[in-house]
Amino acid sequence: MGIQDDAAEIRASGWRTLAALHGLIDSALEKALQAEHRLSVVEYTVLEALSRQDGWHMRMQQLARAAALSSSATTRLVSRLEERGLLGRYLCADDRRGIYTELTTQGRELLRAARPLHDATLEATLTGAADVPELAPLVRALHDLEPAPASPAGS
Amino acid sequence: MGIQDDAAEIRASGWRTLAALHGLIDSALEKALQAEHRLSVVEYTVLEALSRQDGWHMRMQQLARAAALSSSATTRLVSRLEERGLLGRYLCADDRRGIYTELTTQGRELLRAARPLHDATLEATLTGAADVPELAPLVRALHDLEPAPASPAGS
DNA sequence: GAGAACTATTTGCACAAGCAGATATGCCGC
DNA sequence: GCGGCATATCTGCTTGTGCAAATAGTTCTC
């Protein structure tokens, strides 16, 4: 049993570290993006995900997966961004249940403006985390990951 | 500039992977713990953090850091758990602003009951994630972390 | 081609989170 | 010991989230 307990404790400890680093980065990005561009992290993520799509459009459901959100949250998120003129909705021609969401010029503009802050905040937070003994190994590991393909969350 | 852009993109990609894995684990744990023990992940985290303290008690503020929560959220979280008899509050003798929270017998009992499910869910989710190409490298990296000391979030 | 089963999106509702402000306590200099 | 400032906790309010149910459209079967 000792061996199994150890394995479980290693996983639990890894999970705590992952959660801690995630929380750190998430709240740093949240504050920065909110303050400068009135964007939440999820909202930024959505804009960014859309910008990486050919044609800048995506279906609600894809978006939900990419943002790790429920479909109801996605509906409201898209509505918020639509009201701000950052993206638009239009019906799928082929499957009329589906709704495409498309980045507007204004949305692309805002993303272009926000990306530097996002990237800088991310870098600063990771650098800071590298000085925390418990987080440092994970930060190094992250850095050594092979750049992942387009969409780790979507599938 | 190309080199800097690449570095930023590597960090962004690592962050997306981290967030995706975090979301996966978090929602799996949330569903499992909620269904079987009526506990959210944060609640479990708090009970677990308390159980790793000598004397099973901790101040609100420490707790807030350990759970990566605001102090107001911590107040309400502790209230919820207190109402269920899982922990108790008592004043610090030395600093009367401070309030200690202490795991009750019932709280330790529930934690003991929930831990196996938590650990099993974590293992299952990690195993599942190891089959997703984008997540696999991070899962491996997590596994290879040296077991972190007591509290990665608290400091 | 009518009905059943499935999928995509939206809405009603309850809840947990953060921020700002309130209150109580500790600590410091004078 | 008294004002001034910092710290610890709690409360009011607003907002974003998930679940479950409602609605609309597709696909499959006969």
TrEMBL record, chains A, B:
Family matches, as PROSITE patterns: HTH_MARR_2
Location of the HTH marR-type domain: 11-147
Gene3D superfamilies tied to this protein: Winged helix-like DNA-binding domain superfamily/Winged helix DNA-binding domain
Coiled-coil region(s): none
Name of the protein this chain belongs to: MarR family winged helix-turn-helix transcriptional regulator
Species of provenance: Kitasatospora purpeofusca
Lineage, opening ranks: Bacteria, Bacillati, Actinomycetota, Actinomycetes, Kitasatosporales
